[in-house]
Amino acid sequence: METGFSIALIIFSGLLMMLVLMHKGKGGGLSDMFGGGMQSSVGGSSVAERNLDRITVVVGLLWFACIVVLGVLMKLD
User: Fold this and answer.
1) Residues 6+ apart with CB under 8 A from 61
2) Quick check: 6 and 70 in contact, CB under 8 A?
3) Do residues 70 and 5 make contact, with C-beta atoms less than 8 angstroms apart?
4) pLDDT digits (tens, 9 = 90+) for 54-65
5) Which of left, alpha, beta for 44 (phi over 0: left; psi -120 to 50: alpha)?
6) Are 70 and 9 within 8 A, CB to CB?
7) What are the pLDDT digits (tens) for 16-68?
8) Coiled coil located at which positions (predicted)?
9) Helix axes of 47-76 and 2-22: crossing angle, nearest 10 degrees
10) What pLDDT, on a 0 to 100 scale, did the predictor assign at position 5?
11) CA–CA separation, 31 vs 75, rounded Å?
12) Residue of 76, 66, 68 whose CA lies nearest to 10
């Protein structure tokens, strides 16, 4: 069971990194260094950006839950 949660944690970690990197830069910080500072003329956030935000939050919560479950499992061993 611990192995399954460890594999899930690795998958969620990679997915979370990809999702965070897919976000549009809001200006300032490291996002300007990689071209995120160039804003398009379209104002506001699109439906795709809002959905990406929701998916990122869900994957982040699943990642956190995997860490908590792994911690409990390791403590019980």
Assistant:
1) none
2) yes
3) yes
4) 999 999 999 999
5) left
6) yes
7) 999 999 987 766 555 556 665 555 545 556 898 899 999 999 999 999 999 99
8) none
9) 150
10) 95
11) 39
12) 66
Alpha-helical regions (H) of the chain: 2-22, 30-33, 47-76
Reading the block at residue 9, the tokens are 């944690």
Instruction: Give the pair of three-digit tokens for residue 3.
Output: 């192995």
Place of tokens 């071209």: 35
* Amino acid at site 61: L
Tokens 């999702």 — which residue?
19
Tokens of 35: 């071209």
Token pair for residue 17?
């990194």
Burial of 34: CB neighbours in 10 Å, binned 0-12, 13-18, 19+: exposed
Q: Which amino acid is at 52?
A: L
The tokens 């990689």 sit on which residue?
34
